[in-house]
């Protein structure tokens, strides 16, 4: 048995040849399974004296960095609702009350979740009973409304705060609800609906081609990509059985291929659990001509069950009748008239063209024709001004560097004013240094007071305006910025470019459109040698107070609280 405590360690004896050397020793012991040490051994050390000199390594001054990112993220939908982790939590001078007052959402959800948790875990209330009580009580949020809404879904998107409840125990010590509690919302077993639910958040923009891109798609948008329609079957039951007799072997001795159709009458849907049948029903809407052996694996039933259910669900007579109908002419015209119409936005290409373009959300598709599956198609003419550069009219796209992210090397180091961005390589005039990225803030309908609190406290401002028009020398003719790129918490080394005052900058910010998306490109206007600092002009408005900035004609409207932004000066 292992001992409760180790016995005193024996002192190892150095070897005879080591005793005659003026040296230091370290001792080493090994322990057996019972925790008993061996005799130990003395290992000689070679002592190397350090030079008696004092080297001063001053610490780096405090600085604030952010999550590195290669593209923008949309903060419009959630930025002003839910408070994130408290910034400067260890700073007693940070105005916490002022910061939290800027958020709309209160902590009612914490109380609601704790109530649900206690009803289920401590009092054994079922999910159905709890949800029935909640839906009958005004002002409370149902447990689950859809696959991405409801109280439990909202709780899963955030961190529960540490709360000391009336019984004196913290919330962190309590057992939590299981992850899939009350997840039987409407359509949760319908695979066909689930596929379309995920597809609705797929972004087809050429900059994204992914789900929930956080630039064009937000969680509360109902539609982005058109839903998948039910696929028309082409094989009758006899044809499907013949198609299955191919090179692939039978899945088992009971495979539907080895048994006659008349011998499978007992394999009907009456003997299949309803949840499994619901999955099979969805699969037949998506891939009706798939081999039953393959569908059986997903639906967790036998291939004989799949074959019989398909034969009853999809009648051979309907397949034969549909196969005889014409595929062109009047039939195509009738399909077009019944096609569901979606509103799409035309994506502007990088060259002049006249062609049929499939539209993407969210603008009027006036004058568009509709295909049989409901996709709007319109003839698009793209024109460029007379002074457009040759690359814009035809040939190489000027945005290739931005799309591929082949930027110049930037080194962040100490500069005259805090940290600065320095050229990590020689940069020529016209080279794309990088892209200024951060969180996208909509200036038209957002009040972002909490960001102003952080900026005032840290004395740092990483906001960059997009979509506005600068005023003239007399302060007239300007238009407010439509969007702000805030690199306070999300960005890349371009956020460290300092203002060039009193000198002229060696870089400028160009506002460009890439596949319909507005982005900020940092471009060199002077040759920059390796090791030299990269600079921008923030614009005169950046150095004014909030009220003075509002009078400048370009930049924040009154709703933005006079937020100062860098401009494309």
From TrEMBL:
<dbReference type="GO" id="GO:0031507">
    <property type="term" value="P:heterochromatin formation"/>
</dbReference>
<dbReference type="Pfam" id="PF00856">
    <property type="entry name" value="SET"/>
</dbReference>
<feature type="region of interest" description="Disordered">
    <location>
        <begin position="545"/>
        <end position="569"/>
    </location>
</feature>
<dbReference type="GO" id="GO:0003682">
    <property type="term" value="F:chromatin binding"/>
</dbReference>
<dbReference type="GO" id="GO:0035098">
    <property type="term" value="C:ESC/E(Z) complex"/>
</dbReference>
<dbReference type="InterPro" id="IPR001214">
    <property type="entry name" value="SET_dom"/>
</dbReference>
<dbReference type="GO" id="GO:0046976">
    <property type="term" value="F:histone H3K27 methyltransferase activity"/>
</dbReference>
<keyword id="KW-0805">Transcription regulation</keyword>
<dbReference type="InterPro" id="IPR046341">
    <property type="entry name" value="SET_dom_sf"/>
</dbReference>
<dbReference type="InterPro" id="IPR045318">
    <property type="entry name" value="EZH1/2-like"/>
</dbReference>
<protein>
    <recommendedName>
        <fullName>SET domain-containing protein</fullName>
    </recommendedName>
</protein>
<keyword id="KW-0804">Transcription</keyword>
<feature type="domain" description="SET">
    <location>
        <begin position="408"/>
        <end position="539"/>
    </location>
</feature>
